[in-house]
Amino acid sequence: MSVEGFNPYRPEDEIRRELVNHFESCGEVFRVIVPTDPIVDRRAFVILFGHDAEEKALQLNGSDIGDWNALVKSAPMDQEDEYLMAQRYKKSLVDALVNDKKFKFGIAVWGYDTSLPEDEVESALRRHFPSCGGISHVYIYGKRDNIYFSEEHEETSALGPHRSEVSGFRITTRRLATARRNHSLAPGQSSRRIGYTRPAIMIEFAPEIGRKVKAFKKIKRIVKKVMALRRMKEAGKEKVMASRRIK
Predict the structure, then answer these.
(1) Number of helices and strands (H, E) in the chain?
(2) N or C: which end of the chain has fewer CB within 10 A?
């Protein structure tokens, strides 16, 4: 069964406990799969065993669970498998990103002329921080710019020009939240825990990761359909051959 309607940013163990308590009257709750990243998928999956367990669970559609209402749908087992594969693929993308050396250190900059095109802003900022070493990545969005460095001393040097001027505008700099300073959350931990800030690089690349995961799911579905067609053709050939042998 798939379940939606809950706040996916709550702790995983809290969501899992609520779902177990809510669906245990339908049968044996064998497993509850809670989404690890709401950007990819906001559904939870509840695997039930028992007589008429699915029918009983569907009757809970729209039922109240504390401060939210459960949207319950029937989900074939292959959807749950697909979800788990997508989560493993997404984790590999995230691990590659957070372990990339060029995103280990960085600063946030704002106060520059936001009316300029992004390429001009980037060029002006690169000229402004020439003594800080090699800038490994620049991300501009709205009134803020994230600048990344591969080495810590480059980041420290870049924090020096705080309140300096860029093309007549006084800029403000601040150390950026990076994966190096915010280690990955343990299973069940909420991103809202005190002392944790989601790395800026994860926010920047979240749409791209989401697109890649969707493409991954699409490819898996296509492969599954192709394999099913192949099995049907092979079964048809075997049937024809069997009928010929009988004749």
Answers:
(1) 6, 12
(2) C
State residue 18 phi and psi, 5-degree precision: -65, -40
* 76 dihedral zone (left: phi>0; alpha: psi -120 to 50; beta): beta
Q: Provide the token pair at 147.
A: 């600048």
Which tokens belong to 100? 């990339």
Contacts of 64 by beta carbon, 8 Å cutoff, 6+ apart? 70
Domains and CATH numbers, the chain: 2-75 (3.30.70.330), 105-175 (3.30.70.330)
> Taking the CB of residue 167, how many other CB atoms lie within 10 A of it?
14
pLDDT tens over the chain, length 247 residues = 889 999 888 888 889 999 999 999 998 888 888 877 666 668 888 888 888 888 999 999 999 988 899 999 887 666 667 777 877 888 888 888 888 888 888 888 888 888 888 888 888 888 877 666 678 888 888 788 888 988 888 888 888 766 677 767 788 888 888 877 665 555 445 454 545 567 888 888 888 888 888 888 777 777 677 677 777 777 777 776 777 666 5
Which of these, 67, 101, 124, lies nearest to 179 by C-alpha position? 101
Calpha distance 149→134 (Å, rounded): 7
Which residue's structure tokens are 């899992």?
16
Nearest 5°: CA angle at 200, between 108 and 4?
A: 145
CB within 8 A of 29, min separation 6: which ones?
19, 20, 23, 46, 47, 48
